[in-house]
Amino acid sequence: MNSDVTDELKRESRETRWEASSAVLVVVLLQAALGVLSLRHGWTLWGVGGWVWLVPIFPELLLAITVAAEGRGGDLDQTGERRKLGVALLVVVAVLNAVALALLIMELFTGEVRTGGELAIEAVVVWSTLVFTSGMLFWELDGGGPRGRAFEPGGQRDFLFSEMTAPKLVSPDWHPRLLDYIYLSFTTAIAWSAADVMPLSRKAKVMMAIETSLSALTILLVAARAVSVIG
Asked: CA 122, CA 104: separation in Å to the nearest integer?
């Protein structure tokens, strides 16, 4: 590995550590706030106590520590073990969030809905967690993750950003950062389709389809029901 590539990898590591850690901490704060509210007001989730919202915080904190430690002190983690752990933890958080959504939907069909305000808050947390976790998964898996993209700038990609189609209109050193992938996740969850970023691989299409399906369920069923209860 030549010195230029090594310097690029170290720079990418410094940039992405704080971005990824900040994104995870936003999710932790959302989950913690909902957990505290649930315990204070006696909210339950399909018969399970409000403490259930605090369960995802543990893998989320471990994820924050993992991404913060990646590349620390110039360690480029050539084996990719930290990245694998990070992806595994992201999948765990995403699955727990999907389970929470399933329990919310079960409440709707079993008539256990309590107040519209509670449903609205829970829907916002579930949807926001979906956006952040999906964005981080896109970021970690596209082109082998941030390290893979930095190591092979011209390598294969799973997503085509609009900036890639007009290189003369952006900075010469432009490359997709975590915020770009979270924006991709946000537009996918809002528009339920690809916006200005096109999926290039089947893996990317499947991931976007899953996010779109979960977002549609959250908005059409849970959030819509919350509005009707409030009204």
From this structure: 8
